[in-house]
Structures are given as structure tokens and as C-alpha cells.
Batch of 3 targets.
Target 1
Amino acid sequence: MNYKAFSTNCILFLLLVAGVLLSNAQIIKPDVQSVQAAENGSVCRFGITSRQGSEGYDITRIGVGSYLDWGAGSNPSLPSGVEYIRVLRVREDLYPQTLANLPAWVQANLGSVWVVGNEPDTTYDYQDALLPEVYADRYYELATIISSLDPTATIAFGSVVQPTPIRLHYLDRAWDQLVSDAESSAAASNLIDIWSIHSFILNEQEYSWGTGIPPGFENDHDDAVIITNLADTYSIDIYKQRVNAFRNWMASKGERGKPLWITEYGSLMPPIDPPGGPDYYNVSDQDTANFMLATFDFMLSATDDQTGLPGDENRLVQRWFWYSLNDHRYNFGGSIFDPDNGKTPTLVGQAFIDYQSLNLAQPDLFPISLAIAPISYNPDRTLVNYRLTLNIGNALSADTSSSAQVWIYDGDPDGGGSLIAGPIASEAIQRCGGTRLVSADWKAIQPLTYHTLYVQVDPSGVSDSNPDNNRAAYSVFTNLPKLYFLPFLVIK
């Protein structure tokens, strides 16, 4: 056949019904769910910091959802489900390098969390040590670059050493400068996705141990903390008071609706002295472990209906990062693994592992959304077949091989609803926000009718840690399929 001889005069187009093609699915959020899943599962709230890197350490064993090593451009090898948190250094000698590398870092790591600055309020220049106004200027510059290159990025402001009165004054000045740079409070707020602080309990006395006087407050530090009882450095009462104080400060700035992350905290007094001395004040592993577990209990449960995050059941803290995974025990307290003893768990580490094992044994599966799409008519073109696609989430689980079983009902299964499909097996659903899709066909349904579909999700082979959010109900409308006509060619 000579295709070049074709012309519009010798081709007749016949438009025939070629069938029904899959229409765009209507995605529906649940209108009834027993208990909505929290913004973060409890395991996902836990993070860890590391000075020695992660290589050779069994991070899965401690069950954290986040890892921070104060790097920005690297990509450490981490277990599945552990998020790498990137930190941008802003001190004088590092800021030019940060600015130069930032576009490439962002483009290579879309969707990342970026913490801008590391302890800009400290007096010690090995951290970021900036006047509050300078920190705000640099935050504004970096946040503007990040958000322009990656709208999916998450940006965190702050990371002061501890939320004490003098350091809240430091943040007052930094916030005021950010508002000036952005030209309004609303614009400044739009540049902040997360408020980040450290929450150590340290001395604020000039020329002494601890964290010193913030830059810009050398002549204004009457409210600086002076610690005379070193047991205060692991006081749960002081820790609670400061977290509450910071949430109050956030609310005073109109920032209550933002998550609060404590991106570094712990009990820093070492349990042992360095080889050959000197003789330090030591805090036992047991005292540090007791403090650590008390902070876990507090942050998992502490709420406030005036200052807590409304989207997280008014909880005060959304994530926290213990110091540390593996620092030398003669440097600081709190190491989970001992890098000088075969990378074995310390007493503190075993307490961490035991605490987490209560959370890690079970997943928390819950329905997220249901999509419905017509796929075909029945032969006499009166009833319609639909495709149902369910998105399932897992708020927490240590075992990434956990899968779900799903049942879908037309109507309440406890009130006479009929089974559409189930049990449907899903593939593995990762912890800390992992999701999976499962699908089923709903056949021979009267179109243009309303239904309430119920979904039940249960893990396979284990119990669910939060069974109250395993069921959801969805109001659906059975749309008509769209008919698509395809051209057929008849050659004369």
C-alpha cells in the first residue's frame, strides 16, 4: 500500500464507541474514622545525633525515625525509614561555602528538611556564634533560596542551645529582624516550617563551663542562668519548665501552629574521665538514663490546649534528637553505643533500646484515602463496574516487612453492610509515614447513587499498636463512566 497516496478526499472517518477508558479517580478523605492517626507515630518522633557517623552502628535496633550529624550535602547510609536531617552552618568562616553549595545541595535532595544554623546564640565560635540580627539575615537569605528551588522543602529556624530567658530575648531580636527582612510577620512566618531548639541544661556564666552569654548580650545578661548544683544539668523538672516556656514564646509570636523539634539534647556530663585525666565531674549512666526516659515520657504525653500544636492533639514537642549515638564517653554523657568498646550498647543505650521495644513490636496502620473510578459498563449498559483504590499508612513499626489485610464494605459491617472485597493483602508498609495502595473491583453497581463505604485495615501476623484508627468510612458517589470515541479509517 502506498501511504504517500493518502489524501483527505480518500479517507472516511467513522467515529465508533471503542469502549470505556479509566477516568480520573475521585479521591476521598475519610468522613468517619474512630481515632485519627497522630501527625507522627511515637517511634517516628525519636531522633538521634551522631559525631562519629553511622557506619557499623545498628540504628534499626534503637528504632529512631530521624538522624542528624550536622551535615548538609552528604547522604549517609541509613536504614529504611530513617530520615536524614540536614544542617546548614552559618558562622562567619562557613557561611560563604554554605551559600555557594546550597543550590546544588537542594536540587540533589528535594523534599529534605533543612535546619538553618547550629547554636547561633552560643559564645563559642566553634558553633555558629552570631548576633541575632545577623542570624536572621542569613536565615532569610538561605530560606528564600531553598523555597525558590524546592517548594517541597521543610525549613527549620532557631536551634538555640537552650530555651532560657536570655536566649528567648535573643530569639526576640532574631524574629524582629526576620520580620523586617521579610517585610511582615506573615511573610516571616511563611519562611518557617519548624521551630528548632536544643534543650540542654547548661551554665550561662561568662568565662565558665556551659554555653556563655549570647552574642549581643554582653552588657545585658542579668537573667542569665548560673548553675551551682550540677545535678540540675539532668533535672527533669527544669527540662519540662523550659519546654513549656518555649511553647509559650511560640504562641506569643503567633507561631503556635508550627511543629517544635528539639534537634539536640541530653545529659552532657561524662560518666568517666578521659584516659590519664583530668578529673571531671561525672554523672552516672544510670542518672543519665533515668533523665532520658523521663524526657521521653514527658514529650510523648505533654499537651497544652493553649500552646500545643493543634494538629497533633496539642502536644508540645513533635520530634526530639538525643545526644548522642556514639560520642566518646569521656567527652560527654548519653552515648547509646560505646565507640571505644566494640560499638556495644551502653547502659543508657540499653535503656533506650528497652524503652523503644515497647513501641517497635507493633505497627500502627490506618486508612488515609479512598479513590473510586468507573472502569466499564456491564453488557446491557445499565450497571457500572468501579475500581476502588485504598491508600494505607503506617505511623510506626520497626518491622518494614509488615503488611496489611484490608476489607471493604458497602455500609457499616456492624450494621448489615455487605462485603465488597477482602481480605486483600498489601505489600510491606514502611514505618514512620510509609504508605501502600491496594485495589479492588466493585462490580455491577447502580450509577448515580450515594454509598458509605467502610474500610477495615489490620496488620498481618501481629497486633496493631493503635486499633482505634484501623477503620474509616467514606461517602462516595457513583459517577457515570466517560465514553471515549476513537476514529477508525476506511480507505476508498
Target 2
Amino acid sequence: MKSIDLFTLAYRAIVVNKLRSFLTMLGIIIGVFSIIMLVSIGTGLQSYITKQISSLGSNLIFITPGSSEGGARGSGVNKLTINDATNIQLRLTGLAQVAPVVISSSNVTYQGKIDKGVMIAGTTSNYVKTISNISFSQGTNFTVGQERSGSKVAIIGATVASDLFIGASPIGNVITVGTNRYTVIGVVAKRGSTFGVDQDNLVGIPITAAREQFGVDTVSAIYLSANSPELVPIVEQQAKKVLLEHLTTNDFTVQTAESTLSTISSITNILTIALGGIAAISLLVGGIGVANIMLVSVTERTREIGLRKALGAQRSDILKQFLLEAIILSVTGGAIGIAFGMGASMIVAIFLFSTVTYWSVFLAFGFSVAIGVIFGMAPAIRASKLSPIEALRYE
């Protein structure tokens, strides 16, 4: 029998029972939709994190208190000091920029307006050279002289500027951070959010002023930026040597942007695979539905099968017809699921993180075809093995 005739017979059998065919395809639609949707969310999350880390600079190295290995945190006491940053800078002269940071939060006020919970970063003038995506929309950074003298000057983020200085320039005005007054000398250009944290809700002050205001001798982190990507391993190694002169490995953690990105990528890859696996279960259930309906169809059409065999239809013709019906149901359901999945992913991308990848579409479509072949094979074989005499006698 010609392929076009087999396709016509299979198509007619599906159309005769429209509602049953649709309900059968619904399991495939939901399965394919779920695979594309969940994989897109996982891929989108990975892309977002990668972009956020990359925006900080590929040459960036982070030094933070405590050890990240095995959950150990040393004695629980922060032992990183500004002297550590100074010693590292002396060792790495010509190789990297170093910027220690003291981080806290405080209310910031200006002429009766209050901006609550602003991140206060006490750092050095090197900070803007260390973090690659910092520039100024107004004014300038504080100088080394202002940093060393502990001058009460501040640079503010775009969010703070818009909250406190509506329609006015902040430059030269005095804000109050906690109980101390600072003169605004610069406004950082809008940076957006990183991992959900508004990077523009920030006030930067000289680290000497921050240590005095918050009464601390330690630093929250030390940022290093190698002068070139090739120098990152050398900078990392030298920084560790300086710190190990008076600290233990449990007292600090050194991470590069690349290693951080690699770790997070591994986690998000596992998450994406897990989400896809969960979605594949629903596709498997849909396949069982296809097999169930095809078995029912074989039973209902036993006399038809017997008649066709009596008229000369070959066993292979019967097998191909029922297998083709199962494949048409699965492929049609898969195509509809892909369309809905891509559409939903694009909508989600407007509000959250979602990226449709070609491999997830091909994977979902491939699964739907495989489901049709695998779960349609048993009913098709059963139909092809029916004896024409017994089939014609079937009531």
C-alpha cells in the first residue's frame, strides 16, 4: 500500500474521534510544553547569572572572610584588615588594582527626605578602577588625599540621587549618613540590579571615614582586578601568599570571577537537567495515554482489520497504519506543545528569566516522535497479528 494511502487512512481514523484524539494529544502537549518551559527558565537563569558576573569584569578576584571549603568558617571572626589590602597592593604593584571594602547599611537623609536601608560602601579611590562597570554621570570620584585624610565626601548611586534630589543636582549638597554629614561630589551612572540587589541604592565614602563611622578595623571584602586576564592566576597566588603570612586557609576565601562562574554554571546546569527530567515524566505519562488509546482503537476496529486483511491487506500495512496514527498524534501534540512552550517562555522572559534554546525545542520534538514510535508499536503489532477469520467473527 502506498504511503499516501496509509497516511490518509490514519488521518481519517484520528479525525473520526476528534475529542478522544485531542485528549490523547493533550498529554503530549503538556509534556512538551513543560520541557520547553522549565528548560527555558533554567537556561535563562544561567544566562542572567553569567551576565551579572561578567559585568563585574573577567579579571576580578574576590577575597572574603572565612573558608568556603566543607562549610568551615574558621573561628567565625573576620580577620581581614585594611593592612592586608595594603600589603597585597604593595606585592602586586604593576600587576593589579586592589580595593578593600567596608559594607554596612544606614538611613540617608537630605532636607527632611529619608532614604532607608541604603548600602554604605567604605572603600578606596581604586574601587572604580577595580570594578569595570562603574562610571560617573555627574561629578567625580574622591581622591587619594581625601581618602587618607578621612574627608567627609561621598559618591551616590542613581537610586539615591533620584530619591533625595528630585529635579536637582546632588553635587555640592550635604547628605546625612547615620549621624555624619557628607558632601556629595559624584553620582555613579545607573548600573541596575545584580542578583536582585539594587546596585544604585548606594553611598560610597572613603574607607577611613567608614572605619571611623562604623567603628571597625576589618574589611568586608577585598577586590582585586588583574591588569590582564593572563595575570589572574599570578595575582591570585600572590594574594594568597601575602594573607598566609599571618592567617590560615580557614580565615579567608579567594575566588576568581571565572571560578565563581564555573561553580554557578555547574549548579544551574544540574538544575536545568533536573527541571527537564521532571517535565519528561509528564511526557512519559502522555505516551502511556497514547498507548492506551491505540489499544482501545485496535479493539474497536477489530472487524475493520479483519475485513482489510481478507481483502488482501498485508500484515505490514496494518502495522504501519496504526503506528502512523500514534506518530501523528504524538507529533501533532508535540508541535502544539512547542508553540505554546515558546510563547509562554517569551512572556515569562518579560518578567523573569527565560531563554528558549534550539536544543530544548529539538529535544522536546524528538521526545514526542519517540513517544509515538515506542508507545504506538505494541498496539500496532497487536493489530497486525490479528487473524482475519477471528477478527471478522469479533462482536
Target 3
Amino acid sequence: MVIKPETMDEVLKDCKTPEDVDALYSQLLQRMINRALQGEMDAHLGYDKHAKAVEGTSRGNVRNGKTAKRVKGTFGELTIATPRDRDGSFEPQLVKKRQIRLAGMEDKILALYAKGMTTRDIEQALQELYGVTVSHTVVSQVTDAVLDDVRAWQHRPLDAVYPIVWLDGIVVKVHRGKQVLNVSAHVVLGVNLAGEKEVLGLWLAENEGAKFWLSVLTELRNRGVQDIYIACMDGLKGLPDAVTAVFPKTLTQLCIVHLVRASLRYVSSKNVRAIVAALKRIYQSVSVEEAAAELDAFETEWGGQYRAVVRIWRDNWANIIPFFQFPPEIRKVIYTTNAIESLNMSLRKLTRNRRIFPNDDAVFKALYLAIRQASRNWKQIHHWKPALQTFQIMFGEERVPVSTLQ
């Protein structure tokens, strides 16, 4: 559409400040929406206003006035006149019934909430950034609407096979009754057969324990998961047994990042660099035998000073070595756990901003929105086809169908 220059000059002649431009935009947007709603009614009835019914339409249902309401948008409030029909069957789509905010504003509210801002913080930010007054009560209503999405997401059916999953938890502070408690948010991140990352769910419990993880894994099975090739986890006692109790064929792999962090708790700052280098020689070994020799060398050099570090690696050895049977491409995916670490970084940033959540629903809303935001940047796992071929050689066609390789 091309507007004549003289028409543009006439429309803009009184616009001298940015505020004038915003006001003009609001008027144009309001008029456009009202015209579009009239167009929706024309399509609903089958003929234009003041026109005669065409063949195949019925004049039984006709226009029945308008309902005026005010909706909030980026550039202030707009007065919308929603057409009515006699039998009440008209359902507007551009601005729906009971909608009191334009979609753009709702998106901004949810984006700010996903970054950890409170409802009052968002109220202030919208006022400062856009000059729009949206009360914290309205902000809360917008975010509460996400709870239905959270429930549907949390109970959705899952794929039958996830070659790799990561099990981890982060601690959040939540008001429960008159107390502020540390609550563990359990997160399961999976990679499906297409090599795409997907968070399978969120679960809250006062403690991260193997018994609760058993209930989480059982729920995953009930939602359709039949097989997991490798489960990566931290050093939580009893967690490998919980995994194999529900998925007997699954290999359990200890997260090397968690293991190194646990080791460094016992190391003085002056020796951190040397210890990290020595531990890297263990988990970057070519084979199990070479890794065992490197662990022996580590104990010889550092065992007297850091007996606790040696014990951590010896006690967890059975859950450290599974990834040595895989080629480098798969090892990198498993032992670095970049996927879950990157996700947890986003979640921890949110929890640092919020500090204390008023209730469990607030935790679910915030973490769900943060996950949704983070997943927009996720890409397929690198070298995924060769990884699937390796899985098929190791586990057979009955667990890795040939069709997945095509």
C-alpha cells in the first residue's frame, strides 16, 4: 500500500515530538483493529455490513451492536469496539473476548518474568521503558495464565527412546507456610533420536534424593519413555541404582564436571591448576587401562596430600569409565555435560534474581519460562549420525532401529 505524500503530510503535520508520534500510532492502531474486527464479523456472517445476503448464507443471524472495552498495548490504552451478533456465535481472533492486553505486551511481560524479575519489578520496568501502566496484579494474571501451559507440558506424552538424558537439580528458596525452605528443582534434559535437546520435565521436592529420583524416572516411563541408552548424573548416592531399577539396560555415567568440582573442594588454591591438569589426564585418556594408570600416577603424586580426592575417584570408578567405550564425539557430549550446564546457568541466573519465590507455582512458572527461552537457541547435537551408528553397533538394532540412521 502506497500513501500519497500530501496525505502523509496532513496526518503528520501536528507531530512534533516522539510523544506525538506515539499518540498518532495509537490512533492508527486502534482504527486498524476496529476495522479488522468488522472484517472478521463480515466473514463470520458471510456478507458485508449493509449488503444483502448472498446465495448460500442466512440472514437469521445478524449484527447486534458493539461492545466497547479498553485494552493495554505498548503505546498506551486503546478503545476497542468488538462487534456482536444476535446468536452470540462470533468469536473474534485479533482481540479475543475477555482479552485486556495486546499480545505484544503479554510477550514482554513473560520475557521479563523469565529473566527472574518480580511482578512489581515488571510493573516498574514497563512504566519506565514504554510509558505503560500495568499493575503488578495484571502482570501476575498474565504469568498465571502460563500455569495451564506448564501443566500440559509437564504431563505431555514423551518419545519412546531418548539416547542420552541428564539428571540434575538446582536449589531454590520457596515460601511454604511461614517458613522459607530450600527446595530442590529436579530437571531432566534429554536428547531424542533426531539429536534435538528437550527438557522432559520439572519436579519439586525438599531434598534431592535417590528415592525421589526413582519416582521421577517412574513417571517418565509412565509418560511413554521405554529406553534410555546413557543417563548422565552427578555423584548423588543411590541415583545410578534408581536409574537401572526403572531402565535396566541404561548405562549410568557420572558427570565429570561435577566430579572435578567435588574434588576441588579439598584442594588449596595454590594447587588447583596442577590438580585440574592431572585429573584431565585421567578423563581424557584413550582407554580404561590408560585412565587407570593415570589415576595410579595421580595417587602416587598427590595421594598423601589429597587422600579425599583419590577416594572420590576410586569410589565412583564404575560410573566414571562407561564413556571410554565411546568415540570422542560421543564422549564430548557425555562427559562435559555442556547441555545441562548451560541450561542450569540460565536457571541459576533466574533464581539469583528472584532469591525467594512466594509459592511452588511461582517456581514452576519462572523455571518453565526460562527453559522455553533457553531452548530457542538450541541446535542439533554435533556429529549425531555417527553417534547413532555407534549406538547401534553397541546396543543392536532392537534398541536402535535402522530407520533412525536414514
